[in-house]
Amino acid sequence: MPRRPAKRPALPEQLVTHPAQLAACLGHLARAPLIGFDTEFVGEDAYRPELCLVQVATAEQLFVVDPFECGPLDGFWDLLLDPNRTTIVHAGREDVRMCYFQAGRPPAKVFDVQIAAGLIGMTYPIGYAGLVHDLLHQRMQKGETLTDWRKRPLTPAQVRYAYDDVRYLLPAHRKLTERLKRHKRLEWAEEEFASAVRKAVVDDATVERWRKIKGIGALDRRALAVAREVYGWRDKFAERVNRPPRFLMRDDLLIEVARRAPSKPEELHAVRGLPRGQEEAIIEAIARAQALPMDKCPEQETRDNDPPNIVLLGGLLNVVLNDFAARHRLAANLVSSGSDLKAVVRSRAYGEPLPDVPLCRGWRARAVLPELLALLSGDTAIRVADVKAADPLELVELEPEDGDEPDGAAAAPDELPPSASKPFAPAPPTGGTLE
């Protein structure tokens, strides 16, 4: 029998366009332990996005705050920094970053409904409209995605869209929290939320962003050093003038400069499209790279040349993980990437410690990794139990052969976290459908 749609949350709405209205709004929010939060911004022509609207929901009211009209929002950002208040977002990376840019810190306590959905077996990543439909059985109108939020006055359609972007956050939070508790995954969710906030505001020191530029793989080590220095100059220059880095110097031009490595400002004029007036700064960046000894220049990245056994076993673990996730109501791509699975296979094949990847940390190491390692060590085998079933595979624990000791690779105490050897407790039956 089809489910009846839940009643659309009918809450009072207020468009905040005056300092006095903002003060009253902040007084209301100060009493709320849960705040649904979203922002609208324009980031195409600035180094940092320009904040255009703030949308907020509590259990009693919806607010759309216009920062162009109501004055500074310092008091609002302070509310998000209170660890006694939970900020509810959907795919909240940019909203968290906006708070970080404005207040110097991210919200103290974040609940991301997109991540929570993946931890109870819903699609990950799932769009907001899809989550609202699948979880709350409501339909949203999404007609203002590409609107220019800087223009005033706001249209009624824009305001309606802005309210709807936070209208369902608290109901979604309530339902998702119930299911996380039922499956004993609230701690997992909190771990994921904290990790997402860290990634939103702190660049991963292990990721060299300049290496993502198209064409970088064709450069030799000296040219890579030039590309790295020019990239760093471009980023600082973009931040200073508040323009997108690629607007000031396109990636293909950066590669061309790295390839040519000119030593005089006038030589740069042969490359069309470079920012005028910055020739000396670019030449200085090139000179810094040219002065490096060769052993300090970046290494050329090797292509993925894994032998067939690594590729095959990585694919096998991916199959097992997808079956595991289906049986235990998890989004497989939230648990692990294919590259992390292959990194685990390499560590087993070459007798190395487990890699420092998400799969080998936290709840994943405790709940998922032991099953994968048991398969790699030969302690379990995989078979097709029912070709017609939604989860057709079965892992079978193998008896040690006569005279053989268990391999022990899946639970080596010097390689796994102390809790990694705990078996995964299957989620209780739920009838095969999301509630």
UniProtKB/TrEMBL annotation:
Gene3D superfamilies per record: HRDC domain, Ribonuclease H-like superfamily/Ribonuclease H
GO MF entries: 3'-5' exonuclease activity; nucleic acid binding; nucleotide binding; ribonuclease III activity
Region: Disordered, residue numbers: 395-435
GO BP field: nucleobase-containing compound metabolic process
Name of one Pfam family that matches: DNA_pol_A_exo1
Keyword Signal (UniProt): no
Protein's UniProt keywords contain Metal-binding: no
SMART domains documented for this protein: 35EXOc, HRDC
Biased amino acid composition, Acidic residues: 395-407
Ranges where the HRDC domain occurs: 220-296
PROSITE patterns hit by this protein: HRDC
Ranges of biased composition (kind: Low complexity): 408-424
InterPro entries assigned to the protein according to its UniProt record, in alphabetical order: 3'-5'_exonuclease_dom, HRDC-like_sf, HRDC_dom, HRDC_dom_sf, RNase_D-like, RNaseH-like_sf, RNaseH_sf
Protein name, UniProt field: Ribonuclease D
